TrEMBL record:
This is RNA polymerase sigma-70 factor, ECF subfamily. It comes from Pontibacter ummariensis. Residues 22-88 form the RNA polymerase sigma-70 region domain. One of its GO terms (biological process) is DNA-templated transcription initiation. The lineage of its organism: Bacteria, Pseudomonadati, Bacteroidota, Cytophagia, Cytophagales. Signal peptide: none annotated.
Length: 180
């Protein structure tokens, strides 16, 4: 049985058998790290494989100390980078949701009275309510809302989309319960 130092030396020489042994030695512990930073097994596996490639690619930069700590740091940094990439993608999805949901939401809202609308607005989470009121009721644009609430313009757009979606769900539930 090879020691950890011998396995690392073999990896630095590019030996596939040493890489396989290193993988076997750390795969379970590092997969656990990946799972903690993601919401699905699929994402965790992506991060896991990407991080192991980085370990093998940069193993020459390991110069001593806790090897497991060095490996773990690569896995954590890879997971954090994945989160940032995913968050940017999620924000892009939010913008497309705004364009798709705006017309149908306004049609639903136009069918109810002002008092009914205000009662529904009061059910919203605070962030949704503020942005919805400023945009729909007060007529502010997203830049003005961002400045007033000290949030990004994109956050204002996202909160409005979520507020409209929230209203839609409540209205659909009411229509279903009235039909029953």
């Amino acid at each position: 049985m090879l020691s950890e130092e011998e396995i690392i030396a073999g990896c630095k020489e590019g030996k596939a058998s040493s890489q396989e042994k290193l993988y076997q030695l750390y795969s379970r512990r590092m997969m656990a790290v990946c799972v903690r930073y993601t919401s699905s097994r699929f994402e965790a596996e992506d991060i896991f494989h990407e991080a192991f490639v980085k370990v093998f690619k940069h193993i020459d930069s390991y110069s001593g100390g806790s090897f497991e700590g060095w490996v773990r740091r690569i896995f954590v940094n890879t997971a954090i980078n994945h989160y940032h990439k995913n968050r940017k993608y999620q924000e892009q999805l939010d913008y497309s949701t705004i364009e798709e949901s705006t017309p149908s939401t306004e049609d639903i809202i136009s069918q109810i009275s002002g008092q009914e609308l205000q009662a529904l607005i009061n059910l919203m989470p605070e962030g949704y309510k503020l942005v919805f009121n400023l945009y729909v009721v007060e007529g502010y644009n997203h830049r003005e809302i961002g400045e007033a609430l000290n949030i990004a313009e994109g956050t204002s757009k996202s909160q409005l989309a979520k507020a409209k979606s929230f209203l839609k769900k409540i209205l659909l539930k009411q229509q279903i319960s009235e039909a029953c």
